[in-house]
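sorry for the late reply, my laptop died twice this morning and i had to redo everyting from scratch. anyway the thing you sent over, i finally got around to it. pasting the sequence first so we're on the same page, its 628 residues, then the predicted structure underneath. double check i copied it right bc i was rushing
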Amino acid sequence: MRIESFDQFKTLQAEAGKRDEAQPKKILVCCGTGCLATGAKEVAEAFVHEITERGLDVEVGYGVKSTGCHGFCERGPLVAFLPEGLLYTKVKAKRVPEIVEKTIIGETIIPGLLYKNPVDKKRIPAYEEIPFYKNQVRVAMRNIGRIDPTDLMDAIAHDAYAGLAKALFEMTPDEVLDEMELSGQRGRGGAGFNTARKWRSCKAAPGDRRFVLCNGDEGDPGAFKDRSIMEGDPHSVLEGMIIGAYALGSHEGWIYVRDEYPLAVVHLQLAITEARKHGLLGENIMGSGFDFEIQISRGGGAFVCGESSALMRSLAGQTGEPRAKYVHSTEKGLFDLPTVLNNVETWAGIGAIIANGGAWFASMGTEKSKGTKAFSLVGKVKNTGLIELPMGTTLRHIIYDIGGGVLKDRPFKAVQTGGPSGGCIPEELLDLPVDYEKLTEAGSMMGSGGMIVMDDRTCMVDVARYFLAFLTEESCGKCVPCREGLKQMLAIYDALIEGRGNVGDIERIETLAAGMQLGSLCELGKSAPNPVLSTLKYFRSEYEAHIVDHACPAGICRDLTAFEIMPDCDGCHACTKVCPTDCIAGEKKELHVIDHEACISCGACLDVCPTDSIRTFPKVELAAKEVV
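ok and here's the structure:
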């Protein structure tokens, strides 16, 4: 039915709620990209087949729902059972008949499918008691993992478009702006600019035509929270954009989606089609007299197009290059007309803010960083995945309570936030509250939400080089400080990790960094030195070791590192099985020996050794031994 009034929307809400209640028992299969890659589609199909064949859909009211990402990517495919609140992890399609027989019909739990807490090794059956979920507070991701992203009625049953209905029929555009200002929400794309302030600036700009844009070009290595929102709850993004357009008096919008996100494009397009069909988008939305249309534009895979002005040029069919920042997009953005561009996560939270009130959102977080923030928690952490928690949560709580600690219980070394524009935060700052100001003070930034955990086997010089190489490849080349500065800095880092570093390299790096920060045209160039400067600030001794001693303390840089098997080796053969050059010799249960001439210093042996019987040492020591 097409909604033509507020009452009709309430009627549709009631119908959606009744349909949801008609299936009192639900099986929620995570079909986010991560779980799909490990067989979630087959798991969902197997559940549908078993439930239908046994008549449990009719007799008991069981329903199988393919949802978006549950967030706990490390343990996928994930299957949750409601209302029991039970969660099974690493589920395979071949085990579905057993699950139906024992858990659904027999009402018994299969221990081997439960999550095992890495801290106390106990199995936890309840979804909400697993530390990864227990410690989260979700706003932007409130419905991901709960709804079928391809089903509008399911989304409405979980309060989708309730904030829009409230805005259109109970609030004026100015009251929407006031509510957003009360919420204190700041852009979740990285810059942290106040949302209400940006909207007011655009609304005050001269002209009758203005645009509302969504930045879904999530390019930071290790970040995937925008992807998961677009895939798992596309209606939250649409609702936020329509509310924003209503407040601004805009009638045209675009979602710019990274080309590598095909499932997001499919789900967004389906959501747009269904919303338009039901009168939630297009002409005369809900009979309110307000018109707004949304289109999807696929990016070309360029990291620089995540920058606002480059994105707008790309959207207009031009080369995706940034322009000078003194031209504000709220006054002259897309097609040189007033434009508001917000991040996917920003738009996804607006419907909840309007529905629950700005004060509700402002009650979470810190004084200057309100609400919650989504992060992609990855790297050397036990519980990798997608999380959302209040601003001000400490890094220690995130990494150890939610993330379960560092893999193999190795010593924590650093966490990188903010992607290529961010920085590396050391162990002594683990109790740092995560908000915009504190991260900036520490030499990093919020960024789009990537959080990469590193252990003691991480070379910070190599980490900085990785981000420099990434940015060198992705720089648009329009301005000299960024284009040439990145190339020259990368050349110095190549020399450092290859043992060709020289005294004075650190000072040259700092000089180049200062020039890039001062002279680059856009934030890609200005913030590119952040990983460099933060690693220099907190891990300067590692740089000095590379230069003075020609050694890599972490044992990562191949040209500087050699490996040796210690006398306590038990001859298990684990290292010989993974060695790509067959340079390890020794009989089973006897001491093994590495042929250093054949060894390529890949570190595979070190990673698999169960007794920690392999040590790293500088190759210069090996050369000295050969001389002797």
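The longest strand covers residues 372-379.
thats about all i looked at so far, will dig more tmrw
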